[in-house]
Amino acid sequence: WQLVEYGGNWVRPGGSLRLTCVVSGPSLEHYAVAWFRQSPGKEREPVACIGRRAAYSTKYADSVKGRFTISTESDKNEVYLQMDSLKPEDSAVYYCAAEYHNEGDAPWYEDEFTHWGQGTQVTVSS
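-> C-alpha cells emitted (126 positions)
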C-alpha cells in the first residue's frame, strides 16, 4: 500500500486548489478514502470521505460543506479533493487515508483508517 498526495500549494483567500491522492495498492472497489487535515497545535480532523465505489457515498465536515468536493474516477485508483472559496483557516497539512469498506456507513474518524499518505501542505493567505 502507498498513498501519495499531490496538489498542495499557496493560494489567496477565495481561491481554489485540487488535491489528488494516488493509491498504489488494491482497487478502491471496496475501500473508503478520506481527506484529513492538521494545522499547527490542532488535532488531525476529517474533512471529507468517499465510500466504496458500489455506493459512492460522500460525507463532509460542516466547516467545508458547499466549498469542498470529494470525487474519484472509476478507472483510476485516485481520489480528488476540489477546494473552492478557500479561507485562511483551511491552511493545514492535508492527508489522504484509506480503509476497507464493504457495507454500511463509511469510516470517518482517524482511528478507523489504517493506510495513510505523507501529506501535502495547503496555505491560504494574502
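The longest strand covers residues 92-100.
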